[in-house]
Amino acid sequence: MATARPKPQVMRLTEAAAARIKELIARADRPIAGLRVGVKNGGCAGMEYTMEYVDTAAPADEVVEDKGVKIFIDSKAVLFLLGTEMDWKVELLSAQFVFNNPNQSSACGCGESVLLTPAKLDGAEAR
């Protein structure tokens, strides 16, 4: 009998990212279940990360719970985000979420868009 392979966690959060998301949810003016993360076509490099508050999960969302935070991954973005670490960086002139994504092959000069390739599963490109 074949043993089911464990399902990989699509995304993980750093402590800083989890703390910032908890803070944002606590300050929201309505009940929030978590944060939806996805990607969309756009920008000079081809794709942009998206984030929005979630009241309830969409039927096809991949739900990730990490460090006390629920992240809802848009089903169309799963293969582009597989293995990604989401961080919160505070620097001298900026504070922002940063995606450390192994599927990112390049980024535009301004940092607003990226070129992503789907993750490879079992040595073949996933479709």
Can you put this structure into words, describing what you see?
The chain has 127 residues and is mainly beta. It has one domain (11-116): Hypothetical Protein Aq_1857, Chain: A. It is built from 2 helices and 11 strands; from the N terminus they run E-H-E-E-E-E-H-E-E-E-E-E-E. The protein has helices at residues 15-27, 78-81; strands at 11-13, 34-42, 46-54, 62-66, 69-73, 84-90, 95-100, 104-107, 114-116, 120-121, 124-125. The strands form 4 sheets. Strands 3-2-5-4 form a 4-stranded mixed beta sheet. A 3-stranded mixed beta sheet has the order 1-6-7. Strands 8-9 form a two-stranded antiparallel sheet. It is globular, with a radius of gyration of 15 Å. The protein starts with 10 loop residues before the first strand and ends with a strand. Mean pLDDT is 82; it is low at 123-127.
Produce a short descriptive summary.
This protein has two helices and eleven strands; from the N terminus they run βαββββαββββββ. The chain is mainly beta.
Radius of gyration: 15 Å
Distance between the termini: 27 Å
Percent in strands: 35-45%
Topology pattern, helix = H, strand = E: EHEEEEHEEEEEE
Q: How many helices?
A: 2
Which superfamily, in CATH terms, is the homologous superfamily?
HesB-like domain
Biggest sheet, open or closed, and with what strands and sense? 4 strands, mixed
Which class best fits the helix and strand makeup? mainly beta
Structurally, how many domains make up the residues?
1
Enumerate the strands of the largest sheet in spatial order, edge to edge or round the barrel: 3-2-5-4
The helical percent reads: 10-25%
Task: Could you tell me the CATH topology label.
Answer: Hypothetical Protein Aq_1857, Chain: A
- Report the principal-axis shape: globular
**CATH architecture field:** Sandwich
Overall mean confidence score, pLDDT: 82
**pLDDT < 50 runs, ≥5 residues:** 123-127
